[in-house]
Amino acid sequence: MKKAPENIFPVFDRLVNRAEKEGRLKQHSKAIWMTGLSGSGKTTIAVELEKRLFALGYFTQVLDGDNVRSGLNNNLGFSEEDRTENIRRIAELNKLFLNCGIITINCFVSPTTAIRAQAKEIIGAEDFLEVFVNTPFEVCEQRDVKGLYKKARAGEIKNFTGLDAPFEEPSGESIIEIKTENQSVEESVVELLNQILPLIKL
Predict the structure, then answer these.
(1) Is residue 57 assigned to a domain?
(2) Residues 82-127: tens digit of each pLDDT
(3) How many other C-beta atoms lie within 10 A of the C-beta of residue 79?
């Protein structure tokens, strides 16, 4: 654990602990980290997933890239350095939600293996559920729900992931992969829900 700066005295050890809060909420808190290209369906799936979990009695918080960048991280751009800082802050925020017993659903492009590894290290591997919303670039561009691909093609957006900035696909046995190209939002949410429920049930 990184040493606290001089004259900073954290009181984490004196607070009501995580297990007690999880017991009150009757759930295991986890950080569900959804990664994928812009337009892949991360936010759409997250919104529906939260509704399903809430209906089942779970307490959640969705952290979406645009929401976070319009508030907490509104001073950051899209350079490699700013992307890294964006994810660092979000991961630290996840730790706070975890300690509150809350299930956090994250929707961030987080395009590189290194940047996702950074989030996983901060949050903790045992609490980090990485979900790859796997949608081909061509499908995302065809959807272009925010008009970002059109702007990127016109040169109005630089360092656009998948076009002139890399997206490194997650891999490994621990990755939950959701392929949205040939299935509905409903099917994607049910598939994800079925894999998450055993991990959050108290």
Answers:
(1) yes
(2) 888 999 999 999 999 999 999 999 999 999 999 999 999 999 999 9
(3) 11
The residue written with tokens 């350079």 in the block is 79
Q: Is residue 12 part of a domain?
A: no
Residue 16 lies in a domain: no
**Catalytic residue (one of 29, 40, 110, 188):** 110
The pTM of the full predicted model, rounded to 2 decimals, is 0.89
- DSSP reduced 3-state for 197: helix
Domain hosting residue 118, numbered range: 21-200
Catalytic annotation present for 40: no
Q: How many domains does the chain have?
A: 1
Residue 114: which CATH number? 3.40.50.300
Matching residue, tokens 């050890």: 13
Could you read off the pLDDT of 161-186 as tens digits, one per residue?
989 888 999 988 899 999 999 999 99
Q: Is 184 left (phi over 0), alpha (psi -120 to 50) or beta?
A: beta
Within a domain: residue 14? no
